[in-house]
Each structure stands twice: as structure tokens, then as C-alpha cells.
Hints:
The chain is built from three helices and no strands. The chain is an all-alpha fold. The longest helix has 45 residues, at 40-84. The chain starts with 11 loop residues before the first helix and ends with a helix.
Amino acid sequence: MIAIEPSGGVGDDVRRAGGAAAAVGAPIPSKAFFTGGFGNPIVSTIEAMVSTTLSVLAVMLPVLAFGAAVILIALAMSRLRRRALPP
Length: 87
């Protein structure tokens, strides 16, 4: 998504996307130079594995954090109830 700012500049989304594309594209010339092109499939496979792992983590970590927060709140509430009850 391109965000046009009132000043006529390009929004943060485009800058971030360009930075990500530059980070992914950075190893391509060096791997081709040093390996004669034979390392391209290996580096591409590693890039795909890392991107898949990060995508799964991006989905799972918030879900796990929410579950942990619910459990911690439930534990805190149960301890508070125990203290509130007379012996």
C-alpha cells in the first residue's frame, strides 16, 4: 500500500518495504560471485525456511502471549480469592 503524505513524500510503508527488499536481495550478488551460481539454490532454500519460520512465529507468538496472559490473570485472581476468604 502506498501512502501519499501531504508533503508529497512517500509513506513509511514504502520505505519499510524497500528496506526488506534490500535485505533479501543483498546476498544475491555475493553468493553468485563466490559460488559461481551453484550456491543460489542453497541460499534461496535457507531464505525460504527463515521466512516461513518468521511467518509462523508472527502468527503464533501473539496467540501464545494471549494464552499466557489469561493463565496469569486466572492464577492471580485465584490467589486473591484465597487471601480474601477467612481461615
